[in-house]
Design brief:
The complex is a heterodimer of chains A (352) and B (85). By secondary structure, chain A is an alpha/beta fold. Helices cover 33% and strands 16% of the residues of chain A. Chain A contains 12 helices and 11 strands. In chain A, the strands form 2 sheets. A 6-stranded antiparallel beta sheet of chain A has the order 6-7-9-8-10-11, with helices on both faces. Chain A has a 5-stranded parallel beta sheet with strand order 3-2-1-4-5, with helices on both faces. The longest helix of chain B has 11 residues. With 85 residues, chain B is an alpha+beta fold. Chain B has a 4-stranded mixed beta sheet, covered by helices on one side. Chain B is globular, with a radius of gyration of 12 Å. The chains are: A alpha/beta (352), B alpha+beta (85).
């Protein structure tokens, strides 16, 4: 793999998350004359424009895929890889456990580097670049865990971390002179100032700086909904639709047997309508109100309760009765006329 | 050689899935082929042209009607960025 003709530039694949660090890491190596292309893995948990695209109030916000934006700024190709199915094993059985929430960061990083390693072997590339900074993340970017990622991914010393390379043993690209180690950096710790200064030097602005990182699994509320889903179903598994629906709407579980996903506004109602063929849905008829999906196996009594709760979240919350259309996944509808449940009877513990 | 015309239905998929489906479909096409992608995620109207630009393909037209986005791409050679003659 490394015996490319001496006059051809070495080729590296950079893991591009869409954030600043991976952008800078790729650029540092490009500056050394290496041909760099980007790779981005879509796990289903990536914080991208999903909910922004769905919610009406966010529709005027600029929507862009940050990984594509970074690639365009750098002038490199980007390969986006769907790893939704493969990623299940990472999330469900992390060898190194979870972080603060349901984030299996160390296993996740190892998985992505392993996928990148497989990619360079299949595509004749020489090494892998990541934007990791020693000490920046509590789980995957520590002095003691960074070698774990290199070892368990199989990438070994083909994994170059240009932003903190000076703190690490020389990798093969450095030892072979494909890149000059002295031009690589010694960033460490949680401060973002060195990255921001370097971005300014390169003229990068308007880059993404997501407050909670780039993954929904680091979010406490999202993780709680995921755990609730597993508990209610009695098994740790999920479909892609499951994890998308956890990002949308207000989730209430009035009984162990079913959960309500209540649209918070028109955009979410429209989106949830696309799932009516899979879930029983409730739709206020006599008053304006949200579309509601029922996840689980609601009994007849449950439907009555769900209809009353749906009425509570409709414009008819103060009316004596509200007509709620209940439609099963086969498309059979009937109308329930119910009194909206009083606010005091919507128990706090129902909120997932 | 006559360019082949293809259509990809990526409606109801959330970004970046329309981009991934487009990327994977384009890999099966020849330079000069025309691909029409149908989507509903508003993000696709930016993302698919961005993906096309960085990979050297040409966006011929984008339009949006009743929430449905239609993007027409001319596939170019991955090495030269040129469509086949």
């Amino acid at each position: 793999m490394h015996e490319t003709m001496s006059n051809e530039p070495r080729k590296a694949i950079a893991l591009i998350s869409g954030g600043l660090d991976s952008m800078l890491a790729a650029r540092l190596v490009m500056d050394q004359g290496v041909h760099v292309e980007g790779i981005n893995f879509f796990t289903g948990f990536c914080v991208e424009g999903h909910t922004h695209a769905i919610r009406k109030k966010d529709r005027k916000k600029q929507k862009r895929n940050n990984a594509l934006w970074v690639a365009e700024q750098l002038g490199i190709k980007l390969h986006i890889v769907d790893v939704i199915e493969e990623y299940k094993q990472v999330l469900l059985n992390p060898v190194h456990g979870y972080g603060q929430h349901m984030n299996p960061c160390l296993d996740c990083k190892g998985f992505m580097v392993r996928k990148a390693y497989e990619w360079i072997q299949a595509n004749g590339f020489d090494f892998i670049i990541t934007g990791e900074v020693m000490g920046q993340r509590p789980m995957s970017q520590r002095r003691d865990t960074m070698p774990v990622v290199a070892r368990e991914s199989g990438a070994g010393d083909l994994l170059l971390r240009p932003l903190c390379a000076q703190h690490l043993p020389a990798t093969l690209p450095e030892r072979e002179g494909w890149v000059q180690r002295e031009k690589l950096l010694d960033f460490h710790g949680r401060s973002r100032k060195p990255q921001m200064a370097l971005a300014k030097q390169y003229g990068f602005s308007d880059y993404a700086q997501p407050a909670g990182g780039c993954c929904f699994l680091t979010d406490a509320n999202y993780s709680a909904k995921l755990v609730d889903l597993w508990k209610a179903r009695g098994e740790r598994d999920y479909t892609f639709d499951d994890i998308i629906l956890l990002k949308i709407g207000r989730h209430l579980r009035p009984s162990p047997g079913f959960k309500m996903i209540i649209a918070r506004e028109e955009g979410e109602s429209r989106f949830l309508a696309g799932y009516r063929y899979r879930y029983t849905s409730l739709d206020p008829q006599s008053h304006a109100g949200p579309l509601v999906l029922l996840d689980g196996n609601p009994a007849a009594d449950d439907l009555q309760l769900a209809a009353r709760i749906t009425a509570r979240y409709s414009q008819g919350r103060d009316a004596e009765t509200v007509d709620i259309q209940v439609t099963d996944p086969q498309g059979t509808s009937r109308t329930l006329t119910v009194s909206p449940i009083p606010a005091s009877e919507v128990l706090p513990e129902w909120h997932v | 050689m006559t360019a082949a015309h293809h259509q990809l239905d990526a409606r109801h998929l959330l970004c970046p899935l329309p981009v991934i489906r487009t990327q994977d479909f384009v890999q099966t096409l020849q330079a000069g082929d025309i691909l029409v992608v149908l989507c509903t995620d508003p993000g696709a109207i930016n993302d698919i042209p961005a993906w096309s630009r960085i990979n050297g393909h040409q966006v011929l037209e984008t339009s949006e009607h009743d929430g449905e986005i239609r993007i027409t791409i001319k596939v170019c050679s991955p090495d030269t960025g040129n469509p086949a003659e």
